[in-house]
Amino acid sequence: MKTDQFNYDLPSRLIAQYPLSERSSSRLLVVDRKTQGFSHARFSDLRNLLRPGDLMILNNTRVIPARLTGHVERRGAVEFLLTEKKDETRWKVLFKNPAEGLRVSLDGGVSGNLEREPDKSWTIRFSEPVERVISSAGRMPLPPYIGREPEPSDKKTYQTVYATEEGAVAAPTAGLHFDPELISDLCEKGVLMKYVTLHVGDGTFRPVKEELIDNHAMHSERVSVPRETAEAVNEAKAQKRRIISVGTTVTRALESAEGDIGEMRPFSGRTDLFIKPPYKFRFVDVLITNFHMPRSTLLMLVSAFCGTRDLALAAYEEAKSRGYRFLSYGDSMMIV
């Protein structure tokens, strides 16, 4: 398939720049794959849309405030983004105009030197562990389509309320709509919840530049599917209970953990699984997700789950016509 087949017009006025004051008050477009129909709700209506016995899987990754500012001799102030921790003092980095050995000075006497990797990426080797600098001076790595500087409030709002495992540089945005009250209500109803960890990397924003989607090199991300989650998924499948995936990251994590006999297995490692049409989903019955960028691998995954590209794009046009808010801080959809 051609990448242009996953293009659509996204007016800038629909790209949410700030979150709503109440997470679960966001709008929810419900897409029915059988009837090809749409209905409209609020995210808080999940209390009625989900059933007792449904198994909901969430991504508990935690976003690092990984945008740092340092000083380079003869350049002055520079901003850079740490994208993945390699060891105690080495991090993968996105840096404008990098050079081998370039020295960056940070607050508190910490410094780092840029190093070129064999795969042509860049790392920065710090003089000591840099976590305290990240904690005190780091800013949240908001996506490039949010056209403003990160604010202190983003440290809370660009983070799910159940985030525990630090390591992401982008939020699993489908989960941003949950608040503690909604989670409590769903648990009381009998919705079961388990977690995976997929540390979302900067590659999630990388556009597909190839003319044919099969030629796109999918980025790799760290993932962990614990034993208790795998066992819960296998039990739900055996009992024909629905498995609800909260986000494309959860979907990729679950679909990366298939064992030899079709059951889910515990998995810890990296995944570069590229889900695109056509694809047979093994472990996901319902997908909750935000609205994604044109020509993105995320939209391709949504299209695969819808069963047809036409239904996915029709859902996007429906959302646009109703004034839904798009992308990370925007509204959501539930595909059943």
Concise synopsis of the structure shown:
The protein is of the alpha/beta class. Helix content is 20%, strand content 27%. The protein has 8 helices and 17 strands.
SSE layout:
Elements: E1 27-32, E2 37-42, H1 46-49, E3 55-59, E4 61-63, E5 67-72, E6 76-85, E7 90-95, E8 103-105, E9 111-116, E10 122-126, H2 131-137, H3 154-157, E11 165-168, H4 180-189, E12 192-198, E13 221-225, H5 227-238, E14 243-246, H6 248-255, E15 267-271, E16 286-290, H7 297-306, H8 309-321, E17 332-335
Parallel strand pairs: 1-17, 3-12, 3-14, 4-11, 14-16
Antiparallel strand pairs: 1-2, 5-6, 6-7, 7-10, 8-9, 9-10, 12-13, 13-15, 16-17
Description:
This protein has eight helices and 17 strands. The chain is of the alpha/beta class. About 40% of the residues are buried. The strands form three sheets. The protein has a nine-stranded mixed β-sheet, with helices on one face. Strands 5-6-7-10-9-8 form a six-stranded antiparallel β-sheet, with helices on one face. It starts with about 25 loop residues before the first strand and ends with a strand. Strand 8 and strand 9 form a beta hairpin. Helix 7 packs across helix 8.
What key attributes describe this structure?
six-stranded antiparallel beta sheet, globular, 8 helices, 17 strands, 27% strand
Kindly report how far apart the N and C termini lie. Answer: 25 Å
Q: What fraction, in percent, of the residue positions are helical?
A: 10-25%
Reading the helices and strands in chain order gives EEHEEEEEEEEHHEHEEHEHEEHHE
Strands of the widest sheet, in order across it, are 2-1-17-16-14-3-12-13-15
β-strand number: 17
